[in-house]
Specification:
The chain is mainly α. The chain has a domain of 60 residues. The protein has 4 helices and 2 strands.
């Protein structure tokens, strides 16, 4: 993850304009345009020189969720946490 954020800072954030950051929707459009148009198309050293898109296409383990999976129960749950004055979160 740290490498991802370094890449975002070095390749995307430095090129953002006021138009890109005028709203959350505009920022999301710019982010996805960069991810799909540049990041996924750029060869990565950690992927042996192939692009993330090529690596994904080569993978046999990529699968879509079973339509019968109850994704709401898997992903839409709530958990109460308490934020301390020092900004730490207790579990």
């Amino acid at each position: 993850m740290e490498r991802w954020f370094k890449t975002v800072r070095g390749q995307l954030l430095i090129r953002l304009t006021n138009d890109d950051t005028g709203s959350l929707e505009a920022l999301n459009r710019r982010l996805w345009a960069w991810v799909e148009g540049e990041y996924h198309q750029t060869p990565h050293h950690g992927l042996d020189g192939v692009t993330p898109l090529e690596k994904w296409a080569q993978s046999d383990s990529v699968r879509l969720p079973d339509p019968h999976d109850d994704l709401d129960n898997l992903f839409l749950f709530e958990e109460r946490r308490k934020v301390q004055k020092d900004r730490t979160v207790s579990l």
